[in-house]
## 1
Amino acid sequence: MKGIENSMPAIRVSNQGKRKVMSESFLTTARSWYEIEHKAWEFRTAIGATGEKFLPVMDILEIIMSQSLMLVELRIETVQDMGTAEGFTAPDGSFIAFREDVYKKAHRNDPRARFTVAHEIGHFVLHSNTVLSRVPFGAVVPPYKLTEPQANVFAASLLAPLQLIESYDTVSDLENNFGISHTCAVNRLNRRNNLSKKDSGC
Ligand SMILES: [Zn+2]
């Protein structure tokens, strides 16, 4: 199993940090990048989506996970209520909420919104009903122990699994085939080529 220690540099968590996503991270079970990619593939397997490149994440969450299986409640919140948060997964896994503009964009297959949906599914799969603890102020924590980087890796792996990336695929192929952003496509190609130094999936 490939560890992620070498490819994911330590992050100093700070209330002053510009990367808001990191200040919202919680400490969780350490997981390798490989393990998270495997979890995302298991999820695709469970919903019978190992053959299709473009994953309809909003339909999967809304129709399969929420309406059919009743695994989780889907909530749409106003911009006033959500503020800068685009999505939120309840720690007990009871609901996943999206800001209404993100929900609409996800249904229109906007790559960033699709990533947000996949990211929240990642929190649901990896972090709901698990023990999470706050990161002590100023602590240096490796990203493989933090919820936000883990959810980002899950999202990238769910949207664009390495198993479905062809050897001849270009960045634009990945953008078009998997419905991901340019940056995400670049990172996934780098990941496939084992060159990625990124600390997140996209
Ligand atoms: Zn998150």
Note: Residues 63 and 69 are 8 Å apart (CA to CA).
## 2
Amino acid sequence: MRSVAFSLCIRRQSYHVSVRQLNDCEHKDLVYCETVSNRGLPNEQGPPMEPYRFKVAYDKLVIAAGAEPLTFNIKGVKEHAFFLREVNNAQEIRKRLLLNLMKADNTGLPVEERKRLLHCVVVGGGPTEVEFSGELSDFIIKDVHEQYSHVKDDIHVTLIEANDILSSFDVGLREYATNQLIKCGVRLMIGIVKEVHEKKIVLNDGTDVPYGLLVWSTGVGPSDFVKSLNVLKSLGGRIGIDQWMRIPSVEDVFAIGDCGREGRQISSEFVQQDR
Ligand SMILES: Cc1cc2nc3c(=O)[nH]c(=O)nc-3n(C[C@H](O)[C@H](O)[C@H](O)COP(=O)(O)OP(=O)(O)OC[C@H]3O[C@@H](n4cnc5c(N)ncnc54)[C@H](O)[C@@H]3O)c2cc1C
């Protein structure tokens, strides 16, 4: 089997190809694709290209389309928060932080607005968010305090979590992480986010939390592409796979990584479909 992405790179000299659909009723072993970007092509700077649509035949197909950040459909998250998934997310976070530092330099700014701009909020208390909050606070203490010494009393990191941080880890580790975060200057807040506005978060208990930078990382779930696939799903909506990563309802198709999940709850249905 040739790698689908590799064969597409050669043909279109582009790495930006999106799989739209697998198979249709008549043609069993086809992947339907379209280009999604000019990047890497000679006219990169030009207007967006019309998507180029094509099909790729396969003998064996491995789907590894990853997952997408979960927002639980909370109003305003997609519009106002930054996610912690891809390189461009990291670049956007850095850009926003530096922009807010520059804005906070404005001498005519009311104190409350200055504090808002410099308030960095992280939602989610899993390993990624704990690590990120600690790193951000470390960066603030080591670099920002030196370069922007006049803002050092106003810049803060708050981590909001509905339960304990690192709830899947044992108590000793949780306590250690909590102490380390507090030592780094991270404020820990227990709360459930109800909605997100451009400049503030509203919690379930009615508390307003003004912010200048909001980073959202509350786990991952199925992407729209995975949702659109007409295959059996595991609990949580990822592609249901058996212990050999096969998708039992489609012959010669496998799912690996974050897009698939093996589940005991669905195994009986797998068995029925496999027959
Ligand atoms: C901040 C962060 C920290 C992490 N830290 C750790 C860690 O310390 N240890 C650990 O084990 N895991 C960690 N993880 C999780 C780990 O990154 C993922 O489990 C892993 O990347 C999943 O790999 P994947 O190939 O399934 O998906 P991804 O790495 O998400 O790759 C999927 C790719 O498929 C592409 N794609 C999606 N849909 C289509 C489509 N329709 N057509 C074509 N291409 C498509 C996407 O653009 C993407 O490039 C971390 C994740 C994050 C976000």
Note: The pocket of flavin-adenine dinucleotide is lined by residues 17-19, 64-66, 84-85, 128, 223, 225, 257-259 (CB under 6 Å).
## 3
Amino acid sequence: MSQPSSVSACPVCGRPRDVKLRPFCSKRCADIDLAKWLRGEYAIPGAPPGEEGAPDDGEPSEFH
Ligand SMILES: [Zn+2]
């Protein structure tokens, strides 16, 4: 099989990656990916999303 398209594509936008900026196609994509990485790695401790905390659809029922 010869489909290197998916292999040599930028993981962020899917464009052909740049040799100098691999595995990304641009500095911007590199920053975006880094930001995602940091967000996932350094998740706010004590505040897991979807876990304990204020209810999502909790509208103020006792609102006058
Ligand atoms: Zn890209």
Note: Residues 12 and 28 are 10 Å apart (CA to CA).
